Structures are given as C-alpha cells and as structure tokens.
Amino acid sequence: MKRAMLIGPIGCGKTTLMQRLKHQQIKYDKTQAIEFSTNFIDTPGEYMEHHNIMRYLRTTAVDADIVVLLQSATDRRLVYPAGFCSMLTKPTLGLVTKIDQAGDGDIEYFRKLLLSAGVKKVIPISAIDGTNINEVRTALEEN
C-alpha cells in the first residue's frame, strides 16, 4: 500500500478509516497533530477548518504518495473549494464517509463536490460497517 495522506474536517472519519485499513480496533481517537506512520499521514481536521493553517497540508503532502480527501455524508458544509486539489502535486482520491448515515441524495451531492475539488475518483464508504473498504485498499495500492 502506498503512503496515503488523509485530509478532511473534524469528525469526517479520517482516523476511523485508518484504523479500519490497518485492521485495528475501531475507537475514537482525536488527532491532535499530524501523525506519520508507514502507510498513512493522519491530519487533524482543524487543518481544513482554519484557513490560516491549511497551507501546511500542501507542505505535508510532499511525504505522501496519494492524498485522500474525506467528506462526511452527514456534514452539509462545503469543505473543499473548487479546484482544491490543484495545490497538491500528488494523485488524489475522494471518499464520501459515513454512508451508513446518509440521507437521500447525500452521496451523489458529496461525490459532485469532491469531483469539483479535483479528485480523480470518488468511493462512498462506511468505515464502521466496512462498506467499500476493500475498494479503498485497491485504490491505494494502484496509485
């Protein structure tokens, strides 16, 4: 698996996804700082929510093979501006998370927002029940 940098707002499921992909017990663990491991770079949600520190994501992405943008199906905010991925020099993947809690039309709505941000592919997932996690693994191995 390539080294994936996980980006997204607070509570979108970055750490939970990482735990699922690493076959770890799923437990809440608030990421306080950028955490580096062999296959992942887990970023705090504050980096997406506070524009004055968002620039550090671009610098940190240098250490990644792929950047994964996560968007919760339960959070209607526009998190990623159109063309967001143009500031990154790495391949990108978009994930709509928490699809087990999605309402009618939510998955398609967020898929379009992630494509507008510039990701090449979007996968709807649930890290809790494992929906499409193998597809994510495959995508991370291909890039």
TrEMBL record:
Statement: the UniProt record of this protein carries the keyword Acetylation? no
Q: Which SUPFAM superfamilies match?
A: P-loop containing nucleoside triphosphate hydrolases
Whether Metal-binding counts among this entry's keywords is no
Q: Which InterPro entries match?
A: EutP_PduV (IPR012381), P-loop_NTPase (IPR027417)
What keywords is this UniProt entry annotated with?
A: Nucleotide-binding
Q: Name one Pfam family in it.
A: PduV-EutP
The record, for CDD domains, names: Ras_like_GTPase (cd00882)
Which NCBIfam families is this protein grouped with?
A: EutP (TIGR02528)
- Family membership, please give it: Belongs to the EutP/PduV family.
Could you tell me what this protein is called? Answer: EutP/PduV family microcompartment system protein
**Taxonomic source organism:** Limosilactobacillus panis
